[in-house]
Specification:
single chain, alpha+beta, D-Maltodextrin-Binding Protein, domain 2, 2 domains, twelve-stranded mixed sheet, four-stranded antiparallel sheet, 13 helices, globular, transport
Length: about 525
Amino acid sequence: MFNRKRCLRPVVAVASISLVAGCSVLSDGNSADKGPIIVGTTSAPSTLDPAASWDQSWELFRNIYQTLLNYPVGATAPQPDAAKSCRFTDSSNTVYSCELRAGLTFSNGHKLDARAVKYSIDRIRKIDVNGGPAGLLDSLDSVQAVGDRQVVFHLNKPDATFPFVLATPGMSIVDPEEYSDKAVRKGDTIAGSGPYDLQNYQPGKQAVLVANKRYKGFADRRNDAVTIRYFQDSQALAADLRDKKLDLTFRGLAADDVISFQRNDSKDMDVTEGASNEIEYLVFNPKDPWAGKLAVRKAVAQLINRSAIAHDVYKDTVEPLYSMVPAGLTGHNTAYFDDFGDPSAAKARRFLTDAGITQKVPLALWYTTDRYGSATAKEFQEIKRQLEASGLFTITLHGRPWNTYVEGYEKGEYPVFGRGWSPDFPDPDNFVAPFVGKQNALGTPYPAPEITDKLLPQSRRESDRANVVKEFGQAQRILADDARLVPLWQSKQYLASRDDISGAEQSLDPSSIMMMWELYRKTSW
């Protein structure tokens, strides 16, 4: 996954670790005669409607819908996809114009023109789903369709990052004849214009993608069909890969399985390891009588042992994180370590007693059972152990499947809950802006006027993102002082595949979303 916001980062760097030696290669022919490439993941979509999703549904959207801009392999900035060209037409970065490719259609044959683009963007804001992508468009004033092929975006303030917003799957273009602007689309079919058509969809089970012959864009499809299978636990995911029921896994492999595959227990397996800006963190509900107390939040932040979580639960396949902005991005600091240092029961007790809290604090912690892999349950058991070992907390744990989990936190049902975040684009803005303000990715208002009214607008005037360190340093300090969000770890990205599958190294875009069209079978081995 999610609410989101803006701008720049290096493309995910991936290094392939081959577990097989002595192979001769290969050409990237069409592999339709061997059937679709089968991809397994624990990251199932929550919806098929782009206007309703700011989460990991985007992984599917990227492949079945189209956006004006997208990321070709190796790109660090968005490039035209449905658009032929896009640019700011003024010096203040407030008017952005795109010319569409000629002859665009949706997979159902309906015309995709400037009116459809305007309708799609306006629809997001009109429906305004809680936890949906409307929050990405806070700098947009209006959309204008000029003739059939020109779309002009008028912004209400300078925003050099707006092209990155248009490149997110949240801005997918939909067919006005198929998608009402009064409600979220129901059902298990779509009308898109991406590289693939969704031939069959079984929620929580599988998505069958076949080549969209009407697609016009930059993607050079290297296969004719992909089937994505959705798993509720990592064990079953890894077992099906070993049993050759899958060609590749994306998201959800447990740490033990990653290590096992890397140690070459499967002779015909490749593991691709990549850098990732994905993070996991705790969210505190300010309306809860206990989680709403600053002293309680600070005590939890003081007690969390991130190194133990990374090593004991995730076997060092993740890194401890002490800021909401991950390492490797402009402006990253260690604000939470600076505030709290190493875990300390004595310091945590002082936070509570100074606030007049002398009893054990009862807290309910919630996590999703089927989104981030089976290690999530172990992680929350470890957090429970750490907090209760201090003698300061009594913790109860609760888990729910993702679809109902999202509904719960958007309704404010959870005192404390875990979330993962996959960036919309690799910029510090995208790790601060989505979580603050009246409308955010968490469904829980977080007023932070110093950030939303001053620091973010200042940073968005700056096209050179190396010059925003000061603003995001201050923002991270505010987040640490509030302790409404407590970062836990930053992930690494692992793809495990059969040795006859290639393209994994090129398949991840800058937000670690898989571009299925890059995968193909080796035709000689």
